[in-house]
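Backbones bend. To wit:
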Amino acid sequence: MKLKLIPLILASATLLPGCFEEKSNDAATTAPAVSKEDAVASVNGVYISKKTLDTLEKEIAERSQGQTFPKEQLLEELIQRELLIQQALQKQLDKSPEVIERMATVRNSLLSQAALQDYLKANPVTDEEIKAEYDSKMANMGEEYKASHILVKTEDEAKKIIAELEKGGDFKALAKKHSIDPMGSEGGDLGWFTPDRMVPPFSEAVIALENGKFSKEPVQTQFGWHIILREDSRALTPPPFDAVKEQIRPMLQRQKAQTMIENLRNNAKVEILLAPEVKPAEPQASEEPATASEAPQAETSPDAQTPAEGSPTAAETDSTAPAEAAADEEPQSQPKPAE
């Protein structure tokens, strides 16, 4: 059965340098020799270790979100790589300046990662630190709101609807009758949402209202004019600690790593040798009008007096400019109910 080569570019970045180092004459970088007892295959007398296969299998699972491959297929990948490496060494490609530079880059990347891993191993994130971060974030979760709204095109329309509401009009019925929002047919119901899910003017108006009250003044957003009814509010329920514990850990690890790097930077002697970028100077308009002798003279030929065929007139240019500007603006979504 013919096994296909697995495209493992990311994994290759860690495995290939190791394979080159295994054949290096530099004793400081030579990998431990592999015995036949610890090998899973031999390629022209060169053993491939069980550890190499296990490492590849682990990396594949991590980088492919748990997807696994048969060991035979992974081993075939390693065999084909070893054949390519032996071919490269036979042609002395490892002595090529380009390859040497790339191998040095990969080596430096691995060493920087190893330094971080070593620091985090010596300074692990504790359960107490995770719990403290959880308590801090959960204490400031804020509230979520349940609201409905009526969206109309003009402020005058909105004020007329507010007047009807003040006379005892039914909000849901008025929303079905007047709202241009898709949720108008549902009485303007937006369901439960957090303030960050709505545009700022809308959220600010909702927060300022009391439960059961509607806005006495129309609220303007890029979508039009809103009349908002805040129906209810409640404190956000935090997720259980055990459910988010392992999501908090990587964040705290990144914070610790960043602190470590900042300390190294503060205690190091760093000299920036890169020349600062020079931005080109912007042309400045002349403050004085051109004199009669400097001003360009318009030609008086009939062709110069007649607009070129197909070119827009000033009126046409003015009339099309707003449409072009509007087309460049990125549309924003209207307030939507929380899922």
Summary: Strands lie at 39-43, 46-49, 143-152, 189-193, 213-214, 219-221, 224-235. Confidence is low (pLDDT under 50) at residues 1-6, 8-29, 289-339.
